[in-house]
Amino acid sequence: MLLEREAELAQVAEALRAAAAGDSSLVLLTGPLGTGRTALLHQLPMLAEGEKIRVLRANAAPMEQDFDFGVVRQLFDSLLTGAPEELRGQRIEGEVDLCRTVFSDDAPPLDENGAVTIPEEALYGLRSVLATASAERPLLILVDDLQWVDTPSLRWLAFLVKRLHALRAVLVCALRDGYRRPGDPLLREIVEAARRVLRPAPLSLGATKEVILEQFGVPGDEEFARACHESSAGNPLFLKSVLADLAMRGHRPTAEHAETARSLRPAQLRERLASSLRAQPRPPRDLAAAIAVLGDQADPDLLGRLAGLDPIGFLAALRDLHQLGLIAAEQEPRFLHRVVQDAVESSMTVAERERLHDAAAALMYHNGRPAELVAAQLLAVTSSDHPWAVEVLRAAADTALRRGAPRTAARYLRRALLDGSLTGEGRARLLIDLATAERGFDPAACERHISQAIPLLTTPRLRAAAALRISPTIVGLGPPSVIDLLHQVAEDLGPAASLEGTARDVALRLEARLRHAGHEDPAELAAAVERLSALGEEPPLTTSAERELTAVLLNAAVLTARWPAAEVTRLANRILEREPATSDQVHTPLPLVVIGLVAADSVRGISSWLAMEQQTRRRGGTVVDALVNVQQAMVLSARGRVAQAREYAERAVRLAEVHWQEAGVVSTLALTRVALDLQDSALIERILDGPGRRRSSSLALTAALQFVKAAQDAEQGRWPGALETLLACGRQLEASGWRNPVLFSWRPWAADLHRRVGDPHAAGALADEELLRATEWGAPVALGRALRVKARLTDGDQGVRLLRESVDVLRASANELELARTLVLLGKRLRPGGGEAAAVLREAAALASACGVPRLVDRIRAADGSGAAAAPPEATLTRTERTVTSLVGRGLTNQEVAAELGVSSRAIEKHLTSSYRKLGVSGRRELIELLPRMHS
Asked: Per its UniProt record, what SUPFAM superfamilies does this chain match (predicted)?
């Protein structure tokens, strides 16, 4: 299929008409690699059909350059094939020298320099044969890949183009741009003799779509077609190579594969480009290698110096690369396609690449380029003798950390460690810097490198400060090796009371870590609460170290419920008021403050603090991002906003998949809370089949998974088994001193299961105990829930009174879901069909819908047959789904919505599909019709 070459075909047709009238000409078809010269040349014989024009063809090839007169033989073979015997005699037998020199199988005569000698008689004889043939009918002579034509044939073609008059012939030669060879003077003669020079233009977007249709048999999506067109720059060879590779991989021409089309680097195309490059002289090859090494930093000055070219040689080599079709423009040293980079790199040896990268690093360093640019070159070098290399790599790592790229920083620092000159504290500081970068995405590597650094440090304070670079666990037990290391450096440093200044702060932070390491030991928890009380009503919170220690001690008071919720809230807020919100806090015990506020049912004021923390978090740190999302999920769950909490928890779990450890524990904890609130059996099953059961001995996670297992058993009617699991979990929590009724609310659930299995006495005892614990703790959510449990076991007016009291208490709570649950029970207890019952159920439905708990909404609808409890449909949508549907309602397309939100069109399609299902509509039209009613 030949596309958008009508102008070129028309010019050749015009030349043929002129030749028939005796005006012969040479047409040169040129352009860089892949522009379709050969395809166009193959199409030209169609112009001769029905016109009584004889076509002579020859295709040159690199492998046949040593085959003397190879192209001439092809042309005359096509002239003589099929001709009558007497005609062959007329044309050939009279030319004795011609037969002997050109068509004989004997080796042609050579001159004193070893070159083939071509008698003038032979040159004229060949032209005479063409003259005889053209007298009968015009000739269309086609020579492809003129740059590969053997020298004797090239000499004859140069002879011919000067003597085309009276031949009635059009000679069309295809010549690839950018090729130089010993026969250049002859090539130049031919090029300069051309009357017409045709350069096929790049394909348009419309032509690209036609090629896609031909390849796949179906039209391509607009986004896919644009991606193919832009990445190939309209070059037919590049385009067809990418499409063929996509088809081989089983991809379809859809929007979701647009990015694949942009990034694909077909191997066959790479090899063809590499072969073309290897055939070039040294200057363009060296310049291509320099462009590959310098990448985006390929300015003319650096490129010329790295390639070893003077300004004139640089411009000439740049022009050659452009003519070859490897760079976009002569003024812009940038490769046309990513596969060109691969081709250039594959044409270099490993030693050549390392030498160039090392030379590039030195050039950039001495030119004052930013450290990261120099470091990027050093990364490609196994070893370097530059005395400044380590400091440059450290400076680059600092820059990468500041811009939120810890993985990149770690790569620079690992490369710096390869420098054998670093010993002692210098090497220790480098190891500590590396561990600091790694703790955001590879905690195990962080611990390993800190352990390697500590023996190299000379003072107890330095060793202790290094140990604190290891991030603490929040809800799980730290690795024994880390705890042993903390004990060791703390013992060397001494107690905080005997120290001053920075050393005192280090000691306080060590105390915080070690006390938190005992948070599953009841004796250690009790000692921590006593230590907190000893600090007085207003513990000192001037330094970050004091705030870290107070957060750990306060967490002990929360777990044991030894302090009332109001006091926990007061002290926790004091800590946050004095602690700037940064992402670095996830590497300290300070996130424990969030757990305390969740347990105290006092999370309304923390949202802005967490939002600031999220804005400052360092991108690229898997653990950091996971923990920040977990905190958001915890706060949303504490407010009853389960659907939104699920989004954050699911994201945290995905982020924690690579480095599970601490991030995996807290992410799974957040997701179990969501699963229990939603009573989502599929999510519960996924959690139970997940990595949590196999990878952690954390008491918090163990308890959460037991809760989830009990929920699964209860859902399937195995009430005794569910009750046994809960009671065993409760005993384990009590034995560890974990008695907070908000964080570990197992008694209300166990009481309900006792009721279901027919043991009201045991149910009542647990309900009374829960009410007592909740009253002592004082958090509204705990007290309101305990009252609801008590009311469930109490009939008559007394039960209604308890439910009303629960409602009053929960209206002061941040947790709207718990209020909705109590309102449901109250609505059922009130007189059926009465106005108060309907109003209570309507409020419950609105709250449950806003929280994103469809199962509870269905229960409310079943309780009120009048339908008065119907919830607003938009309440079941997630925050992202509401945003997407709102933008669609404004008339935006999927692509426009994706651009607005900075995501892929595929993601928008998924959100819309989910919204259609939740709202019960069949598609975009019905959604747009529903939107005004949703927001009225």
From this structure: C-terminal effector domain of the bipartite response regulators (SSF46894), P-loop containing nucleoside triphosphate hydrolases (SSF52540)
